[in-house]
Amino acid sequence: MRLWLRILLFVCGVMIGGASVGALLLVRLGVAPYDVLNSGIAKQSGLDVGTTSWIVGAASILGAWALGRRPRPFSVAAVVGFGAMINLMLNTFDEPQTLLSRSLILGLALIALWVAITLLLLARLGAGPAEELMLAIVERGVHLRHARWGIEAVLFTAGFALGGQVGVGTVILVLATGPVLAWVLPPLEGWLHEPLHIEAPPVI
To answer: How many domains is the chain partitioned into structurally?
Structure first.
């Protein structure tokens, strides 16, 4: 795949992903473990969630760097882009009032987030900040599955303790993201006639 197309997929993935996370935060029916922490920090500090995502993302990248994995430009760009889109959504739209509207937006936002993850994986321009930290831990000899579970557990526990958003959306994202990607990615690999070389499943 040509570099310009990969960059286009990356930009679209970041914009759609950040917007979908912002929509999930607006409906208050639960977000992914990474955003449980972001929303918890935002609640306690008074900062915008997008701003706290910059802080947590930067901390993740610095942590990976400290473990020997140098930061990648597109990983940094993903942090900036996601945070900006989250803040744009939260500052532009009002929270939906009815359970029906919140449920409909939840479904659409979940689909959009899975599309965004797929686009970012297709772009193959570097992992996200949580994935960079995960891979840095793996390079130190920890099994990938254990590193993933450990990071998700820390993110969720800390975010929950800080009052972050937890709900049905959190459960769906944790349980369904892996199967959705397992269903979507193989046909895409066949269409592209090349393996995607995915380093690690996303910690969303």
So the answer is: 1
- Collect all residues with Cβ–Cβ distance below 8 Å to 97 and sequence separation of at least 6: none
pLDDT in tens, 44-76: 999 999 999 999 999 999 999 999 988 889 999
Between CA 81 and CA 95 the distance in angstroms is: 22
Would you list the DSSP string of 37-68? Answer: HHHHHHHHH---HHHHHHHHHHHHHHHHHHTT
The token duo for 119 is: 């686009």
Determine the Cα–Cα distance for residues 188 and 183; give it in Å rounded to an integer.
10
Structural domain of 107: 3-192
Residue 201 included in any domain: no
**pTM of the full predicted structure?**
0.89
Q: Dihedral through CA 190, CA 194, CA 197, CA 201, nearest 10?
A: -20
- 17: tokens are 């992903």
Question: Cα(103)–Cα(98) distance, rounded to whole angstroms?
Answer: 9
Amino acid letter for position 72? R
Residue 188 inside a domain? The answer is: yes
Nearest to 82 by CA among 59, 121, 45, 116: 116
Residue 112 lies in a domain: yes
71-127 tens-digit pLDDT: 889 999 999 999 999 999 999 999 999 999 999 999 999 999 999 988 888 888 877
